[in-house]
Amino acid sequence: MALIDDHPVVLQGIESWYATSEERITVTARGSDVSTAMTEPGSAADVVVFDLQLAHGAPAYAQLEELSAHGRQVIVYSMYESQAVALMCLELGAFTYLTKTEGERHLVAATLAAAADRPYTPPALAGAFGCDTSADRPNLSRREIDVLLKWFQSESKAMVGESLGLSVRTVNTYLDRVRIKYANVGRPAKTKANLITRAIQDGIVSLDEL
After folding, report:
1. pLDDT tens column, 59-94
2. Is 83 left (phi over 0), alpha (psi -120 to 50) or beta?
3. Distance CA 154, CA 3 (A)
4. For a surface tag, which of 27, 140, 170, 183 has the fewest beta carbons within 10 Å of its beta carbon?
5. What is the pTM of this model?
6. Which letter does DSSP use for residue 191 in this model?
7. CA 189 – CA 195 distance, rounded (Å)
8. Distance of CA 150 to the CA centre of its chain
9. Which of 138, 146, 140 lies closest to 166 in space, CA to CA?
């Protein structure tokens, strides 16, 4: 994984947290620029911890979007405690959003979740979901919602199919339709974690249910 922050002390601190965590997390690259994480997809740098305020400037949304476009699971780790900023980062493809006040426990847990493509919702992001009032919701059918929710609760698409009486191919078709509908309203959701984020934002599933 890679760390991107323009404060050497922050980089050192995060790496120390990872080194002393129960599940050792290896940092393969660290620096103050997105090029730090621009290795080939499938590398150990697929998970990126990203400071949104590089060089004390405006939020680095363009750099975040670039990382997401290259298939990185980006954990935004920022001093900004703005719900609007958190939601914007999710719209741009971030895996999750943490404020730096949330500390070691949440950052380590989010990193392990990102590596396993499991959703992770820290307290700051949970608050942001509750205040999301955007209107660009896709029009999902009842069956699409049923398949989506069952997939969130299952370990495999085969289990979804068995539960709903569908073939795996049909399950994939429904999930593909959902992704296309989200893409068509400008809110792409390429991974399972992204779809869960969208479903929470849109009130399809609650945090308590997950």
Report:
1. 888 888 888 888 889 999 988 887 778 878 887 888
2. alpha
3. 32
4. 183
5. 0.63
6. S
7. 5
8. 20
9. 146
Distant-in-sequence, close-in-space partners of 108: CB < 8 Å, separation ≥ 6:
17, 18, 21, 25
Amino acid at 29: A
Average pLDDT over residues 178-203: 83
Length of the chain, in residues: 210
Q: Across residues 41-54, what is the average pLDDT? A: 77
Residues 6+ apart with CB under 8 A from 101: 81
Q: Where do the domains of the chain lie?
A: 2-130, 142-201
d(CA 161, CA 200): 23
Q: For the residues of 16-64, what is the DSSP string, one character each?
A: HHHHHSSS-----EEESSGGGG-S-TTSTTSEEEE-SSGGG-S--HHHH
- The class level of CATH for 2-130 reads alpha beta
Least Cα distance to 95 among 121, 71, 79, 74 occurs for 74
